[in-house]
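tool=predict chain=A
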Amino acid sequence: MAINSTINKVSITISDMDRHYYQSHELTMAQHPSETDYRFMIRLIAFILNANEQLSFTKGMATDDNAELWKKSLTNEIDLWIDFGQLDEKRIRKACGRAKQVIIYTYHAGKAQVWWQQIQEKCQRFSNLTVSHIKAEGIEAMLKRNMQLQCTIQDGELYLSDDESSITVTIDHL
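tool=predict ok
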C-alpha cells in the first residue's frame, strides 16, 4: 500500500520591502512521502521569495514535465519556472526553453557548490536562468500541519517567524 502525502495548511503574511509586495496567502501544500521536512520548507521559502497571485505549486516531484512552482500568464505561457536542487543540464535546457524566467534554488551547501562548478559553464548560454542558494538552518523545526507565519524580506534577507520561533534565511546568488 502506498504512503499518502501529508497535507499542510499555511497561512502566511508577507512584507517584502525589496519588491514592495505586501500580501497574505492561504496555502495548502502537499508533502510527498519521500520529501524531507527541510526540503518542504525550502519550497515554502521559494514561494515567499517569488510570491504573486498567479504563482502556484504543481505536481512537482511527481512529474518531469512541470516545474515545482510556476507562474503562468492568462494565455497559459510560463512566465516563471522554479525548481530545486541540483538539476541536470537537460532539465535546465527544457525549462529555459519553455519559460520566460527560470530560477533554481539549491539548499545543500556542499553538494550545491560541487554541482554548480560542474554545470556553471554549460549554463552561461541561458540568459533567463538564475541560480540561488538558500541557507535556512533549523527551518524544519517550524514545520507543523497548520502554520501561521509572518515573513519580512529586506535587503535580500528573509525573516520568518511564528508564535514560538524566528529564523533568518539568506539567499546567495551563484
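The chain has a mean pLDDT of 92. Residues 6-173 form a domain with the Restriction endonuclease-like alpha-beta roll fold fold (CATH 3.10.640.10).
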